[in-house]
């Protein structure tokens, strides 16, 4: 299950990431209800996947190790949520610095990494991550008591995975 292994891999490299002037980042795949929590969180969701055969033969049914190689190209959505005090003198640069920390983590992580799906045991290789990143930076929202501001951004990360199938 390549999608599962890629999402788990990204969760692993993003979870507990040190953020500037903030708590560490919490990475999750299935998003909990954010409620009134003030914990910096990134939700990882494998939105778009294009799969293509790189070499023959096609694998025998139920035996992925008998096939040739395939490339999977992901456009992985990472929904970043961060809270900052409304009276912060550095409010204009606080959230951009958080975004920069996240994109730096993605663009500097090791590539050509072998990963194993924790459910199926299928082995694959992350060929590329963080080479193409798009950021959608949302408008700031004041929380109900207006002492805190909620910042949101979507990072769209291109990932390429190679597997035998």
Principal-axis shape equals: elongated
CATH overall fold name: STM4215-like
Tell me the radius of gyration.
18 Å
Please give the CATH architecture: 2-Layer Sandwich
DSSP strand content:
35-45%
Q: What structural class do the secondary elements suggest? A: alpha+beta
Largest sheet: 7 strands, mixed
CATH secondary-structure class: Alpha Beta
- The tally of domains stands at 1
Rounded mean pLDDT score? 91
Poorly predicted segments: none
Provide structural commentary.
- The chain is α+β, with helices and mostly antiparallel strands and 165 residues long.
- The chain has a single domain, classed as STM4215-like.
- The chain is 19% helix and 43% strand.
- The protein contains two helices and seven strands, in the order αβββαββββ.
- Strands 1, 2, 3, 4, 5, 6 and 7 form a seven-stranded mixed sheet that branches.
- Strand 4 and strand 5 form a beta hairpin.
- It is elongated and about 60 Å long.
- The N and C termini lie close together (11 Å).
- The model has no long low-confidence stretch (mean pLDDT 91).
């Amino acid at each position: 299950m390549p999608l599962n292994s890629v999402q788990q891999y990204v969760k692993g490299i993003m979870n507990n990431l040190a953020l500037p002037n903030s708590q560490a980042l919490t990475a999750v795949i299935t998003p909990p209800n954010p409620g009134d929590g003030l914990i910096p969180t990134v939700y990882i969701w494998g939105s778009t996947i294009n799969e293509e055969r790189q070499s023959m033969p096609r694998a025998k049914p139920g035996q992925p190790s008998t096939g040739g190689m395939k490339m999977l190209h992901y456009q992985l959505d990472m929904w970043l949520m961060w809270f900052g005090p409304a009276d912060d003198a550095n409010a204009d640069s606080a959230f951009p610095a958080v975004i920069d920390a996240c994109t730096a983590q993605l663009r500097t992580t090791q590539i050509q990494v072998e990963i194993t799906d924790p459910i199926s045991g299928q082995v694959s290789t992350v060929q590329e991550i963080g080479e193409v990143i798009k950021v959608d930076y949302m408008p700031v929202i004041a929380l109900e008591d207006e002492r805190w501001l909620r910042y949101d951004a979507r990072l769209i990360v291109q990932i390429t995975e190679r597997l035998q199938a």
